[in-house]
Write a structure and sequence with these properties.
The complex is a heterodimer of chains A (234) and B (26).
Chain A: H1 2-46, H2 52-74, H3 85-97, H4 99-114, H5 117-127, H6 129-141, E1 142-146, E2 154-158, H7 162-194, H8 205-233
Antiparallel strand pairs in A: 1-2
Chain B: H1 2-25
Classes of the chains: A mainly alpha (234), B mainly alpha (26).
């Protein structure tokens, strides 16, 4: 049993290190994109009259930035005992809140294209399912743990039993499935409404909605499907 | 869960670029 425990601890430490590397790679990508789009941000949003779109834009832009900066800063702090609980939960909470402006943007796109409040509300509700799922997972199943070994550092880890773990896979299915459904609804609305009006040039509003909407749908479909498949497979 | 480490920043990048492009042509 002791050998099995040691193997489990090493596997856990290894998965934390892998996640941190992936997280840092994601942060670098985001930071790079932030820097190259900063001049466009200044021109399009700083100088323009503030609207609802401005609020949504800044929420999207700076919620993600604050998550990464906090995660980066906490990487330099050694948390012992259970001292990581409040800061880690705080970062995870903001990370979950990222989904709110994303859901707002999806709902606005749905409303702008269909002029149907019910449809727009459905897209919004489906898009915020990950918020509910993440909050339940974070505050019900994730508990502080001190991993013994070389680091002996405080970490937050899932403490669910194998039976509950199967339930957590259903959570992931619900969360990613609803996001895929919301994106699918949006792309259907976009294509149904705009394909007949695609004659506009490369710089038209309709062209941007079609091009960026389709790109967004394809990228997120691939990522959400990957997330879903890896979770079910594991 | 490592996919999330990429999907969240990528989603944020796609949405901000989408909003910037819309604002630029509006």
């Amino acid at each position: 049993a002791r050998a099995a425990e040691i193997v489990a601890i090493i596997a856990e430490e290894d998965s934390i290190v892998s996640y941190n590397y992936c997280s840092m790679a994601g942060f670098v990508l985001y930071l790079y994109d932030y820097l190259i789009t900063f001049p466009a941000e200044a021109i399009c949003f700083w100088k323009a009259r503030p609207t609802g779109a401005t609020v949504l834009f800044f929420l999207t832009r700076y919620t993600t930035m604050s998550v990464f900066l906090l995660e980066f800063a906490f990487g330099f702090v050694t948390f012992t005992g259970t001292s990581c609980v409040i800061p880690t939960r705080f970062v995870n909470f903001i990370e979950t809140m990222q989904y709110l402006p994303w859901a707002g943007f999806s709902a606005l796109r749905a409303y702008a294209l269909s002029r149907n409040r019910l449809l727009s509300m459905m897209v919004f509700v489906l898009s915020i399912v990950p918020v509910a799922v993440n909050l339940v997972e974070e505050f019900v199943f994730v508990k502080p743990a001190v991993l013994p070994g070389t680091s002996s550092m405080c970490t937050l880890d899932g403490t669910e039993s194998p039976q509950v773990s199967i339930g957590c896979v259903s959570f992931t299915i619900a969360s990613r499935g609803s996001l895929i459904a919301a994106d699918a609804m949006l792309i259907v609305i976009t294509w149904a409404k705009l394909t007949r009006r695609r004659g506009g040039d490369g710089g038209s509003f309709v062209h941007v909605l079609l091009r960026d909407g389709t790109l967004y749908f394809i990228c997120l479909l691939v990522l959400n499907s990957l997330h879903l498949s890896f979770n079910i497979a594991s | 869960s490592n996919v999330i480490a990429f999907s969240e920043p990528l989603t944020a990048i796609l949405i901000t670029r989408f909003m910037l492009n819309l604002q630029a042509v509006n």
